[in-house]
Structure formats: structure tokens, C-alpha cells
Amino acid sequence: QVQLVESGGGLVQAGGSLRLSCTASASIFNFNRMGWYRQAPGKQRDLVAIITKGGSTTYADSVKGRFTISRENAKNTVYLQMNSLKPEDTAVYYCQGATAILYWGQGTQVTVSS
Asked: What is the torsion angle, in degrees rounded to the nearest 10, for the CA atoms of residue 85, residue 89, residue 91 and residue 93?
């Protein structure tokens, strides 16, 4: 069973930056794509960004130009660099790895204060 472990969340002021990490217990080449999703209280879990095995990226409109997803294959890690954070970015951020099934991490809390 592959495990995904997120880290890097925390409390930051509006306009600040955070970098989230998602480390897999196996090679990330096993995944067709990996991504970050977020869920705010009382809301559904939404896509933030994904990166395919080939390196193509997709972003939610709300984070384009502010967030960057990347991968470091040698470390089996996917990152989410978040800049110019806004209070509305506050949520639990989840890492997802997709093969024939979906794997999820436990989530990491990001809180942006105004």
C-alpha cells in the first residue's frame, strides 16, 4: 500500500508564502498524475493543481500565477509552492496520487490570516 505524507502547512499572513511537500512511500513514477486538492470548512474538496508523469501541469483558475506544482523524482516528492496567499486559500490541503485507483494523504492545514 502506497502512502502519501504531506508537510509544510501552517499559519501565514496574507501576502506570504508556503511550500507544501508530498512524499510517497514508493516511486512517484508509479502514478499517472499527482495533485493537490483543498477543502475549506463546510465546502467540497476542490482541485488546486496537478502534474502528470510527463510533467504537464493544470491549475485552478483561483491559484493561477500564484501557485506552482513541481516534482522531484529522486525524492519521490511533489511540491506546491504557494505565493501571494490570500485568506480564501485557508483550507486543509491534500495530496493525491492517481494510478488505477486514487491515493490520498492525510492532509495539512494552511491558514492565511488577514
From this structure: -70
The answer to whether 95 touches 104, Cβ cutoff 8 Å, is yes
Bridge partners of residue 40, in order along the sequence:
none
Cell numbers at 87, concatenated: 485568506
Query: Measured between alpha carbons, how far is 105 from 75 in angstroms, rounded to an integer?
Result: 17
Average of pLDDT values for 103-108?
A: 97
The DSSP output letter for 24 is: E
Element (H, E) at 48: strand 45-52
User: CA nearest 67: which of 26, 4, 8?
Assistant: 8
Per-residue cell: 39: 477543502
> What digits encode the pLDDT tens for the residues 24-78?
998 888 899 999 999 999 999 999 999 999 999 999 999 999 999 999 999 999 9
**Closest alpha carbon to 20 in 101, 89, 74:** 89
Which residues are paired to 33 by β-bridges? Answer: 52, 98
Q: What's the grid cell of residue 19?
A: 511550500
